[in-house]
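Thiol-disulfide isomerase, Thioalkalivibrio paradoxus ARh 1. Tokens?
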Amino acid sequence: MPILRNRIVSVCLLLLLATGTQADFAVDLDSGDLLEVYEFGGEHDGPLFLWLVNQYGELVTPNALIETLASRGATVWRTDLLDSLLLQRSSEAIRSLDGGPVAALLDAAVDSGRGPIVLVTCDRMAVPLLRGLHEWRKRGGDSATVAGGILFFPNLYRGTPVAGEQPELLGIVDATNMPLAILQPALGANRDRLTEVLDALHDAGSPAYGWLVDQVRDYYLLYSEEPTNRALESSAGIMPPEVRSAIADTPNQLLMATQLLARTPRPDAVLPLDEAAEQPIAPAYGLIERQPRPAPDYDLVDARGSRHALDESLGRVTLVNFWATWCPPCVHEIPSMNRLAGAYDEDEFAIVSINFREEPEHILEFMREVDVDFPVLMDEDGAVSRDWGVFAFPSSFLLDRDGRIRYTVNTAIEWDTDEVREVIDRLRSEDRYTGLPHRPVAQGPAATIEGR
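Tokens:
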């Protein structure tokens, strides 16, 4: 067991203010910092979970899960990398973390003699978890002593790409060959990318497993009546029954996944890490002009039951906006979109919003609280969002009269600005729609079949 060491007074005060308790012990890091660890169920002989606190610092539901695991014979070491290293709770800080702290934690876990040892985390913290596994192996860690990692809705991407472009996985994915289990919410934003992540891990030699968690969205493990971080506003309030059920089943999933990982063979080789692929991509803000290309089709029913197709937009400039009610930035930009729509004749400009994986009844209830002056189309299975290459919410696409994508936005903006209106007016002033197809028409037999 690592020896508990006192930190300087100011750091101790920060810790006490943040958690109300003092860490059970600390792990020395090569940087001279200390990684504070809280131990639960230390008297047990069951598995040892190394629980990396999420980037938001939300502890209510995770602590309840940890206590349940401890009551069922497991030991849990909970540590907050960002808090221990005095880093901001931001995506940039997480992507900058190397594998050293987690590697040191793994060394301490192996020295404790407990096991099987499993790392656990969610969302963006999956990146330092995988880097830590890789660094620990590179330093000579025996893969037979660690079962692997369990990742809930992991975000393993280099950043948010320009809207409509496919995201790139970080280099650590291609350098990971330890056993992993991924639990992906069935209604999550990256649900349809689970296969891509698993394929990349399998190609690297990782015996990775994936499960879908029914009826819940990302961040369900962080649900709280009063979250400590404003970014989790959409996961606040009275816990829905489906979330409560999924959380209640999580300890079972963790224990079963641990048994599976512990029985899974581990490779001996340590894979090289492509440092260039570890670099985050530069964020793109505001309206981004694109090479004109045909917009993917859609044919969807709106929340009130009317059907809409992309062809309705031909002949006018159209803003296609992908969003969800659980996305605060999406909701924030609705008033400015209403004002923008009201500034133009509907024959010249229109807004079409496409809602991601929610139900019409929920949207109608939302629209009784929030004015939405344009149709809300229901993409209940996420297929249209996938076809358009939507990665982040909101994502918006500005189409010209011929239905071609001319500009994209991958974040919320104020839409009724002079800059946006200048772009729309420029597209309106281009040659009018001639009635020609905005997408290539199949030739030969296929065109004949379609023409019947």
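Confidence is low (pLDDT under 50) at residues 1-20, 435-452.
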